[in-house]
Structure formats: structure tokens, C-alpha cells
Specification:
Elements: E1 5-10, H1 13-24, E2 27-31, E3 37-41, E4 46-51, H2 52-59, E5 77-80, H3 84-93, E6 97-104, E7 110-115, E8 121-125
Parallel strand pairs: 1-4, 5-8
Antiparallel strand pairs: 2-3, 3-4, 6-7, 7-8
Helix pairs in contact: 1-3
Length: about 130
Amino acid sequence: MKFAYTIIYVQYVAASLQFFEQAFGLARGFVSPDGQFGTLDTGSTALSFCQHSTARDSVGQDYVVAQTSALPLGIEIGLATDDVAAACQRAVSAGAQLIKAPTVKPWGQTVAYVRAPDGTLVELCSPIA
């Protein structure tokens, strides 16, 4: 078994792709002709977005929509960076909600949490030494 990808279910795929491009400097990858699915170039494991109507059809039932949930879902996307504070500020400037300012963990890693406009919880972290 190999971890292949993560798909985030969103209202507007193009808006989520644009936010992740602006906030985190990620490049857009494949986008379906109908615009209901798109990916970001994140390395060997893809980060993708899928429009709710398509996702519901695939899953076969409803689910909690992150954007409309008062609390973040119990899952996060982790993005590593050498400058967590700058990445956090860039994300907030692009429209993210600051959840937790950069904090140094006992093992020396710096982490911060933001919530994307589509409801996705994002951890910004320094690499673990």
C-alpha cells in the first residue's frame, strides 16, 4: 500500500487552487475541463480539490462540509517551510484565518495553524531535524 493523494471537497475548486497558490506558493497542476477537479504540484503525493457535487456523487452520501463547520475538521494538511512566521503571514494576507500563531515545540519544530477560506486546516511547520 502507498499513500497516493488527498482530495479536499470544496465549493469552488478554482478559488481553492488560487488561494493555495497565493498563500503557499504552490503551482497548479491538472484541472479537469469542467473545472470540478484540480490538483496542485506538491511533489510525489498530490493535493487535490473536488467540487461538492462531484464528491457527493463519488462518495454516495453527504458529509461534513469544512467551510460551513464552525470548527475545523479533525484533519490537517501539513506544509513544511524554513520560515513558518513568514509563511503564516503570507497565508493570512491571502485570506486565511489564523488559528494558532507560530510556536516552538519541545522537539524544536516551529508550527502554526491557519484555516483556508474553504475550511481546510493547514499546519505550517519547519522541517523536523
